[in-house]
Amino acid sequence: MKWSAWVIGLAAAMIVAAPVAAQQSLGDVAGSIKLKRPEGESVVMDRDTIGQTRRAQTGVTEGDFFRDVVEDCLTETRALSDLVAETRNGTSFYRDEWRGRVVEVGLRLDGAREDVGMFTAEGRLLEAHELAERGANTAGAALEILRGAIADDRPVFSQAGTLSKEAVRLLSDAQAAIGAALRANAAEDTPPPINPIDADRIITALCRGQYGDGSTGFTSCVAEQRAAVDAMAGRFAPGVGLDAISFNVIRNNCRFEWPDNYVSQDRCERHRVAAKKSR
User: Fold this and answer.
1) Is the pTM of this model over 0.70?
2) Total tally of structural domains belonging to the chain
3) Residue where one domain finishes, among candidates 153, 188, 223
4) pLDDT tens digits for 69-109?
């Protein structure tokens, strides 16, 4: 969840102006920011409402929304890790500009971690959610170590670097798990019917690339491809003796593997249907 730029800038300016007192209350700043409307009315950030609005406006699925949330958290965790790495020169830790960026990244990371915690996973996303929560919590631990070092004005935070790198790894693994889960879910969905206009374009491009346009080979190629399209159009789960999900997985996977060749798609389906029934 992104905070408005001027709010982050205001929080950063407060920290830079009063290094010790303000840094001691970084957790309070991150958890209770209020915005002012132009007419002076205060507005409290409601993360539940914002999350629902984000999904409603974009029309994304729960899985897609979770992927975006984890991406946000990973982005800010990498930024935190980069900030820790900057201190290797021995001087960055004491610079107001660097400390101000820690505040900005910290506020964004707090919001991203909260978004991860808000999400309730089920089914194939459970593994990804566990990884994401572990990554978010590990990133939070690294951030608190860094905030504590700044508040004490003591550059003792080597563990923050180790934890931030581990958090990046966990969140990256979560991303990969989300992708695998979404692909598996998509494979079970009812595949769309073959669009005849798209099919004609694909067939023409394929056969033209293999044979001269108008040649005997071209004509034969087109006929074979169209026959494969007709064969798949007449193939359904009940007709081949499979349940709908098993049939959908086969059709979708063959479609993804052979997007530009209907003969290969048809052959793929026939072989996998036969293999599935023989088990």
Assistant:
1) no
2) 2
3) 188
4) 999 999 999 999 999 999 998 899 999 999 999 999 999 99
